[in-house]
Structure formats: C-alpha cells, structure tokens
Design brief:
14 helices; 9-stranded mixed β-sheet; binds NADPH dihydro-nicotinamide-adenine-dinucleotide phosphate; 18 strands; alpha/beta; Rossmann fold
C-alpha cells in the first residue's frame, strides 16, 4: 500500500530504513537515495532485502529531485538528509505531486538560524495541491510534540508550563564526538538559548542557564537551557502555555572541548581561504575555500561509528504543568532508550534510533490515512493516539508519572 522514498543515508536514515523494512505490510516499495549511492547500498545490504532500490541524488538540486521522483513515483518522501535540503525537497514534492515528511526544520547554510517560517510558508501550496507535509517527526522535535498533544488530549484542560528534557547518559568512549551530524549539532548548541514566557521570547547566552535534573534510571544530570525548534510550534498550537523551555544534558568534558572549538575558530560557518598542496604531487600549493566547521566534521568521529562501544541510555520526555477539572496537576511522560539495544537491532546508536523510529511511525501514520491532510503540519496537529500506540510496538515504549515533582 505504500511506496516510500527515503532521502539521506546517515545514522537516522539507516534506522528508519531498518524499521520501514520491518513493517512490510505498510511499506510495500522502498527506495533510498542520497548523495553517495554506496552508502544507500550498504544500508540495503545490512537490512538484507534486495528488493529495496537505491539511487544517487543531489538533494540541493530541485531538477535532480524532480527527475528522481518522476522515475520512482513515490507517494511519500521521507527527508532524512540535512536541514539545508528541506526547501528543495518540498519544492520538488510540489512539482511532482508527492507528500513530504522530515525531522528537522530548514536552516540556511550560511546562517546558524532555524525557524519554521520558511516551511510554514508552503502551507497554501501543499493545501492547493492536496498534498500532506509533516514537519519535525523525529524525537525532539517529533515525539516531544506527540507527547504534548497526548497530554492535552487526555490529561489536561489547559497546559500552562512545558519543559522538554533531553538527557543522553551514554558513554561512547571517545574524547569528543557528536551524536548526530557534527555540523548541524555544533551549530545548534553554540546558538543563544531562547525560551517562551508570558507571550514573549527571552534570549539567554549560550548554555548559560543550567540546573541538575533527575532522569529516571539515570539520576541527576546537569541540564542546559537551549533553543529548540518545537517550542515555536507548540506555543502556537497550545496558546494556554505560559512558559515553554527545552533542556539538554552535557558532560563537563564535552563542554570543555566545545569551548576550545569555539575559541580557536573551528565552529565558524563562514568561508575562509586556505592554501592547500595540489593533489598532483608537484609540491605546488593552491588557494581553496573551506568552512572551518565543515572541515572539523571531516576529522571528528562519524556519529554512525559510535554504536558498537556505546553504553548507557538516553531519556527524553515532557514535564508538563496545567489544570485538570479546576485543579493544578503535573504530568511527566518519557522514554528511555538503550544505546546497546539500538545498536543490536539496527547497527546505530540510540540518538539515531530515537530519531529514525518516529520518522518511520510518522510515515506509517500517513500511509494508514491517519495523518493525511492537505497542508503543512507539525506533528502535534494530528491525533497522537495511534502514534503513541506504535511507539510502544516499535521499540520506544513510554512511561507516565502523575502529580510528581517536576523539579522545574
Ligand atoms: P548524517 O550526516 O549522518 O546523514 C545525512 C545524510 O544526508 C548523509 O547520508 C548525507 O550524504 C546526506 N546528504 C547531505 N547532503 C545531501 C545532499 N545535498 N543530497 C543528498 N543527500 C545529502 O545525519 P543524521 O542521520 O545524523 O541526521 C539526519 C537528519 O536528522 C538531520 O536533518 C538532523 O538534523 C535530523 N535529526 C533530528 C533529530 C530529531 O530528534 N528530530 C535528532 C537527530 C537528528 P553523505 O553520506 O554523502 O554525506
């Protein structure tokens, strides 16, 4: 019943493709396309299903995408490349009459800045074309929005306070590595913090606001207030929210390395000239342009190679305060995911797993007709119940705590 095209062949795509292949009753025809076809072929080999097709595509080029979409004719494109490619892929979807899903909102390459306005601007065009676009369907954004929608539907008359808490208590035994694409990750973390309070967005210096938060089965971990994209859609879709914040844990060693990276200029995203030796062995030099952060990505460990020795768990959830039947109540809903279990099932670590599984479930919701509505939508705008049910079945079970101490 479902013909799906996955774009990207990184950690998240590897997990999503494993899960897509496991649900063959829903996904009947599958293609993986990315910049490097060999990486798509490697995923197919790991899954062991030769019926999955692969292709090479430069997703920065609408023309190449249109050609690919017209050849394969997917019903849904699952975009698991980088946030830079969101708009070109959405554009190609409109040109070819294909539905769309992604896990991260658009970011221009030359500006470390993310917001939904660029993608929300496509709403009317998707509506007019009768096509569905589902935005931000990983874990956070993604499950964090579904958790909030589930809380609003079943446990609150009014949500007033929302704290999304994201802990990675895993140890990959590397001095410094990022858990997903290093370029995107470092751009995100080094930005100013931002949170919502009483109708206003308040800015904080990068990682300057922090406190210990206790995570189930893990214990207290220092957690840092950051800007995160789902806050933007959640305060819009739940206007009773007075305060919305996002917290993520970092170890001291990680922060020390990050500080050094910034201080020596390696997190810069502007182009600079570099004199490099010519590859012909002539001993002559040539001036080339490099972006320091992209160069750093090339020398850092590949997040996809962290899985084998990764121990420990992630714990991501929503801590919510609000009103039910005239009384204040608190609610905490979360998932803990073991890096080792994720690795055993898919060959990838927990951060790729917690993103790739929800991307597959979102695609499943679309093909089952449960999340199918012309326009451009964030996940919390759909019915959370069937998605929550699948989380339990597909490897990301959730737990609830009612009226506990939220610590926040
Ligand atoms: P990776 O860097 O591992 O993978 C990205 C893939 O996209 C690579 O295979 C890369 O190709 C491919 N790609 C990059 N540029 C192009 C292009 N122009 N054309 C075609 N393919 C391209 O990233 P991750 O798998 O870690 O992350 C994937 C996405 O998931 C990112 O957008 C990230 O922000 C998002 N994410 C979302 C989370 C959430 O919870 N919502 C959490 C974690 C990640 P090549 O292999 O040749 O470089």
């Amino acid at each position: 019943m479902g013909k799906v095209l996955v774009i990207g062949a990184g950690g998240v795509a590897t997990v999503a493709c494993h899960k897509i292949a496991q649900n063959s009753d829903v996904f009947t025809e599958i293609m993986i396309a990315s910049r490097t076809k060999a990486k798509c072929d490697k995923i197919v080999e790991a899954i062991g299903n030769p019926n999955i097709k692969t292709a090479q595509v430069d997703a920065d080029s609408v023309e190449e995408l249109v050609k690919l979409f017209n050849d394969f004719k997917p019903e849904l494109v699952v975009n698991l490349a980088l946030p830079y490619q969101d708009l070109t892929i959405m554009e190609a979807c409109l040109q070819c009459g294909v539905n769309y899903l992604d896990t991260a909102n658009y970011e221009p390459k030359d500006e470390a800045h993310f917001e939904y306005s660029w993608q929300w601007a496509y709403k009317k065009r998707f509506e007019d074309a009768g096509l569905t676009a589902i935005l931000g369907c990983g874990f956070d954004p993604g499950v964090s929005g579904v958790y909030t929608a589930y809380a609003a539907k079943h446990h609150f008359d009014e949500i007033t306070h929302l704290d999304i808490v994201d802990c990675n208590a895993g140890n990959h035994h590397k001095a410094f590595a990022t858990n997903f694409n290093p370029e995107i990750n470092i751009r995100e973390i080094t930005q100013k913090g931002l949170y919502y309070k009483d109708g206003e967005w308040l800015e904080t210096d990068p990682l300057s606001v922090h406190q210990p938060i206790t995570y189930p089965n893990i214990g207290p971990r220092e957690s840092y207030l950051m800007h995160h994209e789902e806050l933007e859609s959640l305060v819009k879709n739940y206007p009773t929210i007075k305060q919305a914040r996002f917290w993520m844990t970092f170890g001291q060693q990680y922060l020390t390395y990050l500080d050094v990276i910034q201080n020596i200029g390696m997190s810069r995203i502007d182009e600079m000239e570099y004199e490099a030796p010519l590859a012909d062995g002539s001993g002559k030099n040539v001036k080339v342009k490099i972006v320091p952060l992209q160069f750093l990505k090339a020398v850092l460990p590949n997040p996809q190679d962290l899985g084998e020795n990764y121990e420990g768990e992630t714990s991501i959830g929503c801590r919510i305060r609000g009103i039910k039947d005239g009384k204040e109540r608190t609610y905490y809903v979360y998932n803990n995911c073991s890096h080792q279990e994720a690795y055993k099932e898919t060959g990838m670590q927990g951060v790729s797993y917690t993103t790739g599984v929800p991307a597959m479930i979102g695609a499943m919701m679309f093909f089952k007709g449960l999340w199918k509505r012309p326009g451009v939508w964030n996940v919390e705008e759909f019915d959370p119940d069937p998605f929550m049910e699948q989380l339990n079945k597909q490897g990301l079970p959730w737990h609830e705590v009612f009226d506990g101490d939220l610590e926040l």
